[in-house]
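thoughts on these tokens:
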Amino acid sequence: MIGTGYVGLVSGACLSEFGHEVICVDKDPAKIATLRQGGIPIYEPGLDEIVAANVRSGRLSFTTDLKEAVSNAEVIFIGVGTPSRRGDGHADLTYVYAAAEEIAKALTGYTVIVTKSTVPVGTSRAIEKIIKATRPSAQFDMASNPEFLREGSAIEDFRRPDRVVVGCDTERARDVMREVYRPLFLNETPILFTSRETSELIKYAANAFLATKITFINEMADICEKVGGNVQDVARGIGLDGRIGKKFLNAGPGYGGSCFPKDTLALIRTASELGAPSRIVEAVVAVNERRKLDMAKKIEAAFGGVKGKTIAVLGLTFKPNTDDMRDAPSLVILPYLQEAGATIRAFDPEGHKEAAKHLTLTYCSNAYEALTGADGVVLLTEWNEFRALDLPRVKAALKFPVMVDLRNIYKPTQMAEAGFHYVSVGR
């Protein structure tokens, strides 16, 4: 497994749990040292136990030596980062192509080389050309095997996926990939074998569609606020339709994270260059960017202006059960409030370290510390511990009983009875 970021580490650990011998490779000596010492460089529930158990069993190991790791491998997964490229939004494939060249030099026998990273359509073919040019005698097949892991529930997603998608051109490669996922075959998990280009597009299409659902319900929330409707009832009313489904219909401050923002941009750029522009996805990206700023203004209005005020913020990461700050709504909302004159006191159960790289705030050790003496509170991320706050204690800690709930955690009637000026989304 080349790369020990989110995708590489989770996938490598779970594949070792399937009974395979997995070597995870990374160029960062500090990260490999941490993993060898039992540390986990990312926060993902349950990952530390799986890594520890499989290291003890001898099935999982870590190294900086790609040549040694690759030389006897039957399958090589490329799981390095593909961030958005500055300037044009394309996926930056620098790390992918560099890994391909190194792999080519280290191959010793027939190997299936698999792209696990999220890559634009055609990347697998480009990797194949790089390897053949670097090592014309190399015996290998290429495959595309996109990941569909949700941060915060990635272990369960890998163990019990909705489906596994594999794109490859030869029966030999299919046989190898069937063996890799043999435990899931036994569990009758749907496994779709298709072409490499189709496999690559499935990943982008899935993420773009989910991002569209989120953006759609956010626009419905805006309409609800204008007419006195309830977006949660709207979401339930349409989600019960089997053709639509109930997931990803929670109104809020917009999507963020490691996948949706960069993948929607990459799809837009690819589609445009192919002469088949995706107008729907273009609109989704534009609406989502505007959404974050709109939510900042919503907070400002709820406080009657924020100049000179102290605001308690609960939750900084883009979603709960992760420390990931990539494209989190907080990265737009909080600087706006600070620019408008607010002081921010914040608490996030896991996100402080990552947030501090981007935001200069007063970081608190728990929710009630953040609340103490603030002019009001904003709920930005729906961590479970924020779902059952002691409301009388919250009210007593605040100067004014103002709560802006951008995740609709609480019921308006409950908050009114508790004496709060309560503002939520689409209700």
User: Anything to note?
Assistant: The CA atoms of residues 149 and 156 lie 9 Å apart.
